[in-house]
């Protein structure tokens, strides 16, 4: 595909923002089986046609697309599994809604990679729920306006309903009972006031399926259930993660070992986000975990007054005290040992 993206320019500057990894399919693996664009892969909004029926190839595999998000937009990160040029521009084209024969709907984000001249280099599909191979999915809706907000939802760090948060006075309170202005205990700055509380209900599938850190996994008395990208603060007495330091931040999904940390799908889940004047480490079910961190991707989904309030306080780099473990750095067996060591 060699189509020009209208009004888009390419920027191959080195990425400097936070990195997020997205589990995507390549467009060539999701093609029209019946319809106007017969045999064609999914494309951008100007090309695709409503009522076309798409099918995922049996050989299709979800690949890791690592992206950098900053105020200027999206670009491909150096550690992307797909191997394209670092800094290549990515564009959030649209959110496409498909309907299977069973009547179930699946939303998917279409991302477009362009070259230095603005021509389309590749197209990726980020489904928000599982897509089964060899089943027809009919395109029923194209939404050009909500793509950035939907991507921000994937990046949100969130606790589930019922999670008990430690307050400044040492008491614990369910997150859904907290209010703006409540003072929460933070690891580095003592008591801090909540500035904003976000809430959303989503299908507990795919990128939104919650991670359950079971009772006792990190010396916690109750299960802690968080969104997949939520980072847990861990002090490792031995460097099982080979991070070169004792203090690490690790996304909950990287701790999944099938034993005491699992991912659960099915039904719906209520997610809550807590925002402070700065990015903090707080305590949820006794486990040190991060509060919401606002980068260029997440900021656009916040209310305007909140964006203005935290524009400078969240623009600074995160504390260097903690090293984040990225995708591919932690094998399940290592994750189990890391948890045992940290909770000892």
What does this structure look like?
It is globular, with a radius of gyration of 21 Å. Mean pLDDT is 82; it is low at 6-17 and 316-321. The chain is mainly beta. The strands form seven sheets. Strands 1-4-5-6-7-8 form a six-stranded antiparallel β-barrel. The N and C termini lie far apart (54 Å). It has helices at residues 147-155, 296-299, 304-310, 332-343; strands spanning 19-26, 30-34, 53-56, 63-70, 73-76, 89-100, 105-114, 120-127, 136-143, 159-160, 164-166, 172-174, 183-186, 190-193, 196-203, 211-213, 224-226, 231-235, 247-251, 261-263, 268-275, 281-284, 287-290, 323-325. The chain folds into two domains: 19-146, no CATH class; 156-343, Hedgehog/Intein (Hint) domain (Endonuclease - Pi-scei, Chain A, domain 1, Beta Complex). Strand 6 (89-100) and strand 7 (105-114) form a beta hairpin. Helices cover 9% and strands 38% of the residues. The chain has four helices and 24 strands.
- What would the CATH topology of the largest domain be? Endonuclease - Pi-scei, Chain A, domain 1
SSE string, helices as H and strands as E: EEEEEEEEEHEEEEEEEEEEEEEEHHEH
Biggest sheet details: 6 strands, antiparallel, barrel
As a percent range, the share of strand residues is 35-45%
The spatial strand order of the largest sheet comes to 1-4-5-6-7-8
Which descriptor suits the 3D outline? globular
Secondary structure tally, helices: 4
* Helix percentage range: under 10%
| Stretches with pLDDT under 50, minimum 5 residues | 6-17, 316-321
CATH superfamily of the largest domain: Hedgehog/Intein (Hint) domain
Provide the structure class: mainly beta
The CATH class of the largest domain: Mainly Beta
Pfam families: Hint_2 (PF13403)
GO biological process, one term: intein-mediated protein splicing
Protein name: Hint domain-containing protein
């Amino acid at each position: 595909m060699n189509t020009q993206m209208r009004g888009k320019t390419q920027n191959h500057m080195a990425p400097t923002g936070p990195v997020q990894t997205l589990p995507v399919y390549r467009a060539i693996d999701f093609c029209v089986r019946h319809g106007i664009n017969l045999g064609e892969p999914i494309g951008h909004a100007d090309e695709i046609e409503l009522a076309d029926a798409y099918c995922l190839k049996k050989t299709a595999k979800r690949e890791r697309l690592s992206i950098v998000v900053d105020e200027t937009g999206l670009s491909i990160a150096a550690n992307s599994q797909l191997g394209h040029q670092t800094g290549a521009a990515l564009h959030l084209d649209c959110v496409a809604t498909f309907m299977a024969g069973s009547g179930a709907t699946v939303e998917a984000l279409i991302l477009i990679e362009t070259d230095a001249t603005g021509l389309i280099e590749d197209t990726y599909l980020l489904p928000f729920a599982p897509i089964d191979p060899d089943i027809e999915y009919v395109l029923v809706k194209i939404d050009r306006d909500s793509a950035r907000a939907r991507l921000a939802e994937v990046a949100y760090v969130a606790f589930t309903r019922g999670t008990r948060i430690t307050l400044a006075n040492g008491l614990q309170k369910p997150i859904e009972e907290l209010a703006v202005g409540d003072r929460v205990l933070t690891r580095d700055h003592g008591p801090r006031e909540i500035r904003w509380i976000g809430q959303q209900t989503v299908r507990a599938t795919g990128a939104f399926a919650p991670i359950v850190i079971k009772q006792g996994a990190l010396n916690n008395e109750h299960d802690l259930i968080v969104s997949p990208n939520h980072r847990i603060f861990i002090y490792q007495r031995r460097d099982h993660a080979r991070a070169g330091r004792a203090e690490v931040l690790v996304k909950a999904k990287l701790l999944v070992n099938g034993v005491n940390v699992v991912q659960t799908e099915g039904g719906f889940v209520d997610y809550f986000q807590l925002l402070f004047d700065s990015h903090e480490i707080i305590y949820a079910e006794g486990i040190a975990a991060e509060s919401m961190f606002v980068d260029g991707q997440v900021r656009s989904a916040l209310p305007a007054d909140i964006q203005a309030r935290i524009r400078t306080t969240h623009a600074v780099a995160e504390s260097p005290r903690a090293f984040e473990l990225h995708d591919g750095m932690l094998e399940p067996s290592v994750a189990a040992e890391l948890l045992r060591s940290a909770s000892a």
